[in-house]
UniProtKB/TrEMBL annotation, chains A, B, C, D, E, F:
Top-rank lineage group of the source organism: Bacteria
Gene Ontology MF terms: cyclic pyranopterin monophosphate synthase activity
Organism the protein comes from: Polynucleobacter sphagniphilus
Chain's gene name: moaC
Name of the protein this chain belongs to: Cyclic pyranopterin monophosphate synthase
PANTHER family linked to this entry: CYCLIC PYRANOPTERIN MONOPHOSPHATE SYNTHASE, MOLYBDOPTERIN COFACTOR SYNTHESIS PROTEIN A
Amino acid sequence: MNKLTHFDDSGQAHMVNVGDKANTHRIALASGLITMLPQTFDMVMAGNHKKGDVLGIARIAAIQASKKTSELIPLCHPLVLTHVSVEFQPNQETSSISCHVRAETTGPTGVEMEALTAVQVALLTIYDMCKAVDRGMVMDDIRLLEKSGGKSGDWKAPK
Amino acid sequence: MNKLTHFDDSGQAHMVNVGDKANTHRIALASGLITMLPQTFDMVMAGNHKKGDVLGIARIAAIQASKKTSELIPLCHPLVLTHVSVEFQPNQETSSISCHVRAETTGPTGVEMEALTAVQVALLTIYDMCKAVDRGMVMDDIRLLEKSGGKSGDWKAPK
Amino acid sequence: MNKLTHFDDSGQAHMVNVGDKANTHRIALASGLITMLPQTFDMVMAGNHKKGDVLGIARIAAIQASKKTSELIPLCHPLVLTHVSVEFQPNQETSSISCHVRAETTGPTGVEMEALTAVQVALLTIYDMCKAVDRGMVMDDIRLLEKSGGKSGDWKAPK
Amino acid sequence: MNKLTHFDDSGQAHMVNVGDKANTHRIALASGLITMLPQTFDMVMAGNHKKGDVLGIARIAAIQASKKTSELIPLCHPLVLTHVSVEFQPNQETSSISCHVRAETTGPTGVEMEALTAVQVALLTIYDMCKAVDRGMVMDDIRLLEKSGGKSGDWKAPK
Amino acid sequence: MNKLTHFDDSGQAHMVNVGDKANTHRIALASGLITMLPQTFDMVMAGNHKKGDVLGIARIAAIQASKKTSELIPLCHPLVLTHVSVEFQPNQETSSISCHVRAETTGPTGVEMEALTAVQVALLTIYDMCKAVDRGMVMDDIRLLEKSGGKSGDWKAPK
Amino acid sequence: MNKLTHFDDSGQAHMVNVGDKANTHRIALASGLITMLPQTFDMVMAGNHKKGDVLGIARIAAIQASKKTSELIPLCHPLVLTHVSVEFQPNQETSSISCHVRAETTGPTGVEMEALTAVQVALLTIYDMCKAVDRGMVMDDIRLLEKSGGKSGDWKAPK
């Protein structure tokens, strides 16, 4: 049995009807990481503290991308974001930078896709700014960590 | 020494000057994958062959996203794509679907970001359509596989 | 007397003030059709059932376009869609495909333009995908069928 | 046999490869019309000559929409328009207004979709501005009239 | 002490959390002006009354731009505008045209940026349409005049 | 005589035909400034050197806006930018920050509007980030400084 809600009974895609859903406060947390060469990692870290602020630019790109989610994902409902924040955690040992995004809204649909889209575009922007010195960077482990609000209730990724 | 080309000598971000670069034929291949529960994988596969075509919709989303790359990535140059194709390869054993994108242009800048953006949005669209049944899906191994054209020449990801 | 509400008393265009309107549940149904050569019609129908899914792609384009309505129509208010569905009805006898769209929102303004925009872009997308074999396709009878909600109440197109 | 070029040999949609096509001067002409109640027609005509310029606004909307064509039509190539003009011809006898658009580019792909998109959005904008007084307006006969340039050569709609 | 609310305690940019703010009716008024050569001014004025309607086009551009504010300003919240109007006041003596915009919404955030963005794009559009005859036009005195609604209450620019 | 090139002989707006214009290297420089309270100026300057980087964010917003120019200005031709840079010059004495933008392309149309749009959005972004502490900031003296390339040749603003 196909329970994918983005398709109607005849298997055709539609934008799911959320007209009867209550407006609730919704939060989603998502994360992902990009791994690079040690010398690329050092360059990004150097910039972060003085000039050449790669992570500052990736943060802005992520926030802007979260606002474009319903343009990018065909069956996503448009929604009015009330909060987006983006944190980066560098890991010297693995030459990687992880990105955590928190998105919030008050409305009838969740903000999981907004949080995930922001993570993806943050990582892509880091890739773009470093690709001239390191084309082999890899983006991994992009996932939802947690969501709350709405009829389906709270959810946390298993550890 | 900071060699990140998206910053000028004083460390400020700019859109790199490509006015002197030759127009060459440029190709980029990128890939990534999404891993899900076996029952989610089965639902996607069932739909792919008759109704509820998750991958068909993800393919369209990916092609459209490739055209929005310079809107999403702050320092990307706008460019005129001449070709985009998107392939999915399901792997029953790992309950995962990999996505390969090929992007092409003739111009002064490469299409790596367009190929990577298309991969990201393809995976995000699969996530969106299946999230009601499986919130724990993970996107991994998003990377450039190959690029050709331009002054920096050809590049292939090491195996 | 000019009663076109998109103009103020001095005849200048404005985005009509809807700040005092109540948020009500609003529905609009619109339709239109595209007529083609019999052999083009057969190609589209063939694709619809196995490969080369013209109508599946047109459906996605229509849903995405409905979200862009206020960008396309200058004096349209932005609104938050709660539902969009798109149906195609092929007519072998007339070699034509009709498209029906249903759009819904809860808010101070109607969704007629969202439904009509989705119909237009669905038909355009069919045209685009078939134009290499049939440039003479014609789009006709694009109209509102029905709307409900709001102060002006319900309306149905006369038969 | 399926010859729809927007699908590859396995029936999957792609953005057709135009990298080998020559850059030629391309022109497309498209048209369509909207029919309304006589009193609506009179209102539009009154505005056109002094205040409440419905057609002036529809013209601007059409030109702007032509620039958004590749965002709206999933498999359209982005292209750089070199000219767009929009003419309206009112017909008092039939209470209808026809719209003619001419679009031009120099490039590897045609501008038929840009011309048709502009016609559609011109008619939709007229509908939007008049819908408060006339919801039953109908848009018809939207078609390509003529195109020139490119490998497939010139084409004219049969009378 | 840094009280700029668009940065968190560690100095990183974020989209400020407005989830707890009440939905109130909000109004913003903004203005600005463009000064040109006397002969350019005369051309614009001539067009405004019969053909070549520079100000009519600038008004439409301004209204459309107000809807794009959250796309243009990185940390702006998306919001649903309920009213936008744009007035131009020509001043023959100084060969300048001033633009006043009023924007309204009901929501948790203000519409100051929407009003200011509309003013800027109105002036830019006038510049664009006249630049072939007068490249030296200057835009000045772009400012918020007044705002009401929200927790911070009413504000008026000092005379 | 009306010589405004954005109107045809009958006074109707069109996107000017540039199909016959040569592709030349084109450069435009534009500038503008925003004046604020001394304490606001100090906050921005503090952030610029350590945390809360207002100008870094305004620079990114300006570059992204330059890519959206033809979406914002109705009769602007789309073009492919080859370079954009944005500089800020703080003036402690006047509590103002000036913004200089340089935009370049190789094509048939100039980049004046792209440079001016970037300046406007840079200033608007500074306004947005500081408005919680200073609503009375004013943007002035937004103008073209210089342009080169194209049939109309070089131009410099008189001092």
